User: Which sequence fits this backbone?
């Protein structure tokens, strides 16, 4: 009887410790899906990364190398949307009270809304990508409601919306065998 009580006590302690270790408000477990082929790519526990810092005068400083952000962004667009965008530069712009990060290439532009917390910008999980509206900062960009993209002038269907748990630039997604 005492063995059963000791075993039960150890199990309770283990469950309590496990619950404390698995509660992390800074990260999340996500399912990454390939919407084109309708398959699950994988599962990851990740945390969004601080991308930019906004100074008191409004100046923006990148906290991660642009080359890493571009590499992740290009890779993930190709993997998830089959878009070979060849994005080569990144800029940050502000429209009203919203900050956006935009990657541009010769023919494509992809834009992500940034959430600013205490002067640090974190990418939201919606991106809008276009090749016809590639020279615009107002067309084919995420709307502030984070649910859709703005239109692309008269060209219907050119704006591709991608929704992921973290921003496309945060980390390189990988396919996992089913």
Assistant:
């Amino acid at each position: 009887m005492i063995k059963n009580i000791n075993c039960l006590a150890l199990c309770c302690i283990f469950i309590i410790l496990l619950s404390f270790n698995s509660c992390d408000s800074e990260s999340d477990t996500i399912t990454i899906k390939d919407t084109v082929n309708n398959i699950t790519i994988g599962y990851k526990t990740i945390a969004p990364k601080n991308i930019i810092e906004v100074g008191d005068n409004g100046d923006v400083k990148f906290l991660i190398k642009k080359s890493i952000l571009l590499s992740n962004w290009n890779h993930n667009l190709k993997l998830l949307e089959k878009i070979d965008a060849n994005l080569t530069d990144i800029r940050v712009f502000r429209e009203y009270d919203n900050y956006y990060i935009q990657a541009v290439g010769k023919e494509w532009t992809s834009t992500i809304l940034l959430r600013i917390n205490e002067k640090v910008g974190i990418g939201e999980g919606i991106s809008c990508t276009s090749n016809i509206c590639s020279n615009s900062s107002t067309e084919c960009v995420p709307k502030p409601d984070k649910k859709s993209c703005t239109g692309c002038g008269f060209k219907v269907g050119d704006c591709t919306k991608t929704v992921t748990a973290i921003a496309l630039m945060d980390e390189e997604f990988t396919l996992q065998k089913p």
In short: The longest helix spans residues 2-22.
